[in-house]
Amino acid sequence: METTRTGLGSTLQLHRFSQAVEKGVTLARALEIALESPFLRTTETVPLEDAAGRMLARDMASKVDDPRFDNSAMDGWAVRKADCKDKGTVLRIVGSSQAGSSTTPSIGKGEACSIMTGAPLPEGADAIVIIEDSSTEGERVTINGPARPHYIRKKGENLERGAIALIAGSVLTPAATSLAATMGHSVLEVVSRPKIAVIGVGDELTPPGEPLADGEIFESNTYGIAALIKKMGGDPERFAIIPDTIELLRETLDEAAESCDAIITSGGVSMGKWDIVRTLMEDEGDIGFWRVMMRPGGPPLFGKWNGTPIFGLPGNPVSSHVVFTVLVSEWISKCMGADYETGPRLAHRVRVIMEEPLKGAKGKLCLRRIFIRQEGDSLVGSSSTHQGSGNIHSMVAHNALSLLPPGTDSEEGETIDALWLI
Ligand code: AMP
Ligand code: MG
Fold first, then answer.
1. What pLDDT, on a 0 to 100 scale, did the predictor assign at position 101?
2. Which of 105, 109, 164, 201 lies 20 to 30 A from 366 at CA?
3. Residue 73's pLDDT is what?
4. Ligand 2 center to residue 209 CA distance, Å?
C-alpha cells in the first residue's frame, strides 16, 4: 500500500482492497478476504536431523526399494516349503545369513540356512521356520513347526523405488522423519517459517514478573499467540508492549511491516475512543474486513500495513485465542501451502453429544468452551458455566470449542459439531 500523510493528520489512500471495508462478515468470508493478501511462501533446505516438525515443500520419492531385498521377518531357518510338509523333517544346515551379510549361501532340496531378522533370503528358499519350532544337532536341524512364506518380507513390498510417500504441505511427524531416512534423504526442502510480529496494545499492560501499579494487569496474550504461531510452524517475534499511543503504534507497525511477513496485534480493535489499532488502520492502513459474526471474538480486523498483512485481534484473552484458532491459523496454513489432512493444525472437528444445554448466539457462530471426553463409543461434551471472554482459565479448563451455527441453541443430549483442541 502507498500512503501519503498530509500535514493535518488526514491521509490519502492510493491502493486499497478492491472493495470497501466489509463489516460484520462470516468466518468463511473473513478467511476469503484475508487470503487475498497472503504472505510470500519461501522454502529452505534443512538437514534431516533438524527436519522433524517442519512442513515439506515438495513431494518426496523414495531413492530405494523398501525392503531393499527379500529378507526374513523372524529369526529362524530359511527353507523350501516343499521340504517341510511333514513334522520332524530333518534338513542339512548349509550356512547362516545375518543382517548386513553381503554374501548369502543358496539352498537346495533338503537344505536349510540359519537366518536372522532382516537378513537377506538365501536363493532357493521360499519360507521361514521360526527358531522356536526347531532343534539342532550338529549339521542337522529338525523342523517341528510350519514353514511360512509370509515371514519373508519381499523387496519393494512397502515402497517401490521412485514411489512418492511424503507429500508437499505435510508436517514431518516422527514417523515421517524415519520414513524420509528410509527413503534415503539426508536433506529436505521445507517451507520457511513465516516471521510473524506479535504486538500487545494497551495502557494497562505490564509484563508478568514486573510490579503492577493500580489499574494495571499482566500482559498475557502475546505469549499465548506466540505459542500458537509456533504450533502452526511460524516464527513469532514478540514486540514490546505498546501503550495506547498512536505514534508509538505507528512506529512499531512500520518496523514490524519491514522486518516480518505478517503482523498480529492484540487489543484496541473495538468501538472505543482508545481502540487505536482500529483508528490507525482506518485512517492510515488498508482494511479488508472489520468484525466477524462470531462469539467470542467479534471485533477482529484484517488489512495491510505498508503492504504487510495484519490481523488486529481483540484484547480479551479468550477472544484472541479463539480468533487465532479458527481464522488466523487457517490463513497461515493456506499461505504456507499446507495439506489439509497432514499439515499443521490446532484442532480436529468432531461430533459431540452434549450433556447439558448450550446457549448459542443470535446471528453469530458461537464458540463456547466445552470439555470433551470419551465415554464408550461416544464423545461427550460438558461445559462449566463461566464463559467470559476475559477468562483465559476457561480455555485451560476446557479442551474444545462448540461450533453452534448462528441462532441455534443445543439441547441436552443433542449432537453438535465442535473443535477438539490439540
Ligand atoms: P481491548 O480489546 O483493548 O478493548 O481489551 C479488551 C480486554 O482485554 C481488556 O480487559 C484488556 O485489559 C484486555 N487485554 C487487552 N490486551 C491484553 C493482553 N495483551 N493481555 C491480557 N489482556 C489484555
Ligand atoms: Mg485496550
1. 84
2. 201
3. 98
4. 21
Q: Which band of pLDDT confidence, cut at 50, 70 and 90, is reported for residue 384?
A: confident
Res 12 pLDDT > 50: no
Rounded mean pLDDT, 361-377: 97
**CATH class assigned to 43-63+165-191:** alpha beta
Q: What is the predicted pLDDT for the residue at 109?
A: 97
Measured from the Cα of 222, ligand 1's closest atom is 19
| CATH code, 71-153 | 2.170.190.11
CATH architecture under which domain 347-421 falls: Beta Barrel (2.40)
Residue with cell 463409543: 377
| Site to substitute for ligand 1 among 266, 276, 393, most atoms within 8 A of C-beta | 266
- 88 Cα to the center of ligand 2, angstroms: 85
Nearest bound ligand to the CA of residue 270: 1
Please tell me the residue having the least CA distance from ligand 1 atom 5: 315
Homologous superfamily of domain range 11-42+192-335: MoaB/Mog-like domain (3.40.980.10)
Nearest ligand atom owner, CA of 217: 1
pLDDT of 171 > 70? The answer is yes
Measure 74 CA to ligand 1 centroid, in angstroms.
62
Residue 284 has pLDDT above 80, yes or no: yes
Domain ranges of the chain: 11-42+192-335, 43-63+165-191, 71-153, 347-421
Does 136 score more than 70 pLDDT? yes
The ligand minimizing its distance to the Cα of 266 is 1
Q: Is 0.85 topped by the overall pTM?
A: yes
Q: Which residues line ligand 1 (CB under 6 A)?
A: 200, 202, 204-205, 217, 219-222, 266-268, 270, 314-317, 390
What percentage of the chain carries pLDDT values higher than 70?
95
